């Protein structure tokens, strides 16, 4: 059964990749003094005349990492657990060593490594931003040597990428100091995902675990950090495990409120749960430039928390928010009526339930249900 499920998942990922638009280009680089092959996957249905813009993933070691990332991104975005994105892979099958060359004195890019650093920041990304519709949320992905390399962009005063997926990094010695220092000082939101495997060579695993310990100790509200150690994976299979975990963590804010988020965060809030909901969707707007309609699932989660914690005064702002996002439905009126009913204004509650009769049913809230609630109030109070 487990094997069947695995094959089905691989089939779905493969099918999704067929649906997405993948193309290969030869990119002439003046910084490198040569051509490089890049792969680009555009979101499903991407056309030149639409207005929607997308985050960008830059995948080093694109000769083998591209499909892993592209398939997962397409799959997660299909189920709306993350935004659709533009995926750019750089093939390095014959050039990885030279591309990742760093100085033994300071662990920073040197010679061909410095040229490759400039190629990405000064040529490739400007080309993508000029020719495709992008938002200012960029994700860098690397494995082994390239996982070390992508951190160099983090060392800039304004990091080039907003998110880093660092899998089994072959860290240059001084990067153990540079990375935590930079992450402790970031002044804008940075997502950092680190992973290693059980079969990574001893020195590599020790360095990644030392890095994990140092990053875990950082107290910076702008840093969102997560770590996984895949003890049963090999060094080369680690990315297949790491990428979906990374996407889950990086794009958590984009996803519907989960049972865990509801239990561990929302029920324990010291602020208004409605404010929590508004801030969640404002973060989606700020990070990904997406004006996302609040999901019915999320309205229901907040309403459940209000009811469970008996914070009935918050039904009023929740009702107003529901009217804004679903103006033709019963949702807003239902929450407002609950507010009046629970705060001692039964007549207002009754009238609000009754006025909802002309609106559309939604989320299990039916016209019959609200009329029954109105009739119950009328019978109890003799209106």
* Helical content class: 40-55%
**Count of DSSP helices?**
15
Q: Which regions are unreliable across 5 or more consecutive residues at pLDDT < 50?
A: 1-18
Alpha-beta classification? alpha/beta
Gross morphology:
elongated
Domain unit count: 2
Residue share in β-strands: 15-25%
As a whole number of angstroms, the C-alpha radius of gyration is 25 Å
- Mind telling me the CATH class of the largest domain? Alpha Beta
Average pLDDT level: 93
What is the number of beta strands? 8
CATH-level-2 architecture of the largest domain: 3-Layer(aba) Sandwich
Structural commentary:
The chain is an alpha/beta fold and 383 residues long. It is built from 15 helices and 8 strands. The chain has an 8-stranded mixed sheet, with helices on both faces. Strand 1 (21-29) and strand 2 form a beta hairpin. Helix 1 packs across helix 2, helix 2 packs across helix 8 (238-250) and helix 14 packs antiparallel against helix 15.
Précis, in short:
This protein is α/β, with parallel strands linked by helices and 383 residues long. It has helices spanning 2-19, 62-78, 96-99, 112-131, 145-149, 175-185, 202-216, 238-250, 259-266, 273-288, 296-308, 315-325, 331-342, 346-355, 367-381, and strands at residues 21-29, 34-42, 54-59, 86-90, 134-143, 163-167, 190-197, 223-230.
Keyphrases for this structure?
383 residues; alpha/beta; Rossmann fold; Serine Threonine Protein Phosphatase 5, Tetratricopeptide repeat; 8-stranded mixed β-sheet
Write the layout of secondary structure elements.
Elements: H1 2-19, E1 21-29, E2 34-42, E3 54-59, H2 62-78, E4 86-90, H3 96-99, H4 112-131, E5 134-143, H5 145-149, E6 163-167, H6 175-185, E7 190-197, H7 202-216, E8 223-230, H8 238-250, H9 259-266, H10 273-288, H11 296-308, H12 315-325, H13 331-342, H14 346-355, H15 367-381
């Amino acid at each position: 059964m487990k094997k069947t499920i695995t094959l089905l998942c691989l089939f779905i990922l493969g099918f999704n990749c067929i649906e997405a638009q993948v193309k290969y280009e030869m990119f002439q680089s003046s910084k490198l003094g040569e051509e490089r092959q890049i792969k680009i996957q555009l979101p499903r249905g991407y056309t030149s005349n639409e207005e929607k813009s997308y985050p960008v993933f830059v995948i080093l070691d694109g000769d083998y990492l591209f499909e892993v990332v592209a398939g997962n991104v397409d799959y997660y975005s299909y189920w709306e657990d993350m935004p659709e994105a533009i995926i750019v892979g750089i093939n390095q099958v014959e050039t990885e060593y030279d591309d990742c060359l760093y100085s033994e004195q300071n662990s920073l890019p040197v010679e061909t490594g410095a040229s490759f650093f400039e190629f990405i920041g000064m040529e490739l990304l400007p080309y993508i931003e000029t020719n495709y519709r992008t938002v200012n949320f960029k994700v860098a992905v690397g494995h082994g040597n390239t996982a070390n390399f992508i951190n160099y962009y983090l060392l800039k005063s304004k990091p080039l990428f907003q998110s880093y997926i660092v899998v089994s990094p072959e860290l240059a010695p001084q990067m153990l100091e540079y990375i935590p220092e930079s992450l402790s000082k970031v002044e804008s939101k940075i997502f950092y995902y680190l992973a290693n495997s059980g079969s990574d060579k001893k020195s590599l695993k020790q360095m990644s675990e030392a890095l994990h310990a140092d990053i875990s100790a950082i107290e910076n509200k702008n840093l969102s950090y997560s770590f996984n150690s895949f003890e049963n994976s090999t060094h080369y299979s680690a990315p297949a495990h790491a990428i979906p975990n990374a996407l889950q963590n990086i794009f958590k804010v984009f996803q519907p409120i989960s049972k865990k988020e509801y239990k561990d965060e929302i029920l324990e809030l010291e602020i208004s749960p409605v404010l929590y909901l508004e801030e969640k969707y404002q973060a989606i707007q700020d990070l990904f430039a997406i004006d996302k309609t609040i999901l019915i699932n999320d309205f229901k989660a907040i309403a459940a928390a209000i009811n469970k914690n008996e914070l009935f005064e918050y039904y009023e702002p929740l009702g107003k928010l529901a009217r804004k996002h679903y103006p033709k439905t019963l949702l807003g009126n239902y929450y407002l009526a609950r507010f009046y009913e629970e705060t001692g204004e039964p007549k207002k509650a009754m009238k609000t339930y009754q006025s909802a009769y002309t609106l559309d049913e939604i989320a299990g809230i039916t016209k019959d249900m609200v009329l029954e609630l109105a009739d119950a109030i009328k019978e109890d109070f003799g209106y």
